[in-house]
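[09:14] KT: can someone run the structure on this one? pasting the chain below
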Amino acid sequence: MKLVEHKIDLFYPRNDDPSRDESRPTSVRVGLSDVRAADDLIIDYDFERDGYRIRMATVHEWEPEDQIMDPKLVEVAFAPSWIGDAAEGGPATNCNAEDTALVETLCEHSTEEDIRALADMIGEKSPELSAFITARHRAVVARRTA
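[09:31] RB: done, structure tokens below
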């Protein structure tokens, strides 16, 4: 079966222009119509972390009187803006925003020796996370010396 792609550009999605309409979306919803059920993915760009945030709804049904109908989106993955970021700062991981912030804080307040020990300890169970922590620490050190 040949892969068929549909490209969608988010054209200046952080522009808060009040005249923005649906022809300039800020996110993309990807759904699956098949015999296999799957929740939709909501993809948008996170400018603070410089990459794509992928979220899914955790609530799909609401009471009839519920006027808000909040889907309670939760981040399920994050992809760096380009592979060069992953090469410089470590491999792309599925760390959510809170986990990434925790790693950044850990790296800010730890010595290289502490980070190496932690990465070695984690490495046996999660080589990807170990590499991510090590790379983030390198990035923190580089920012400090710049």
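[09:33] KT: thanks! The chain is about 35% helix and 15% strand.
[09:34] RB: yep, looked fine to me
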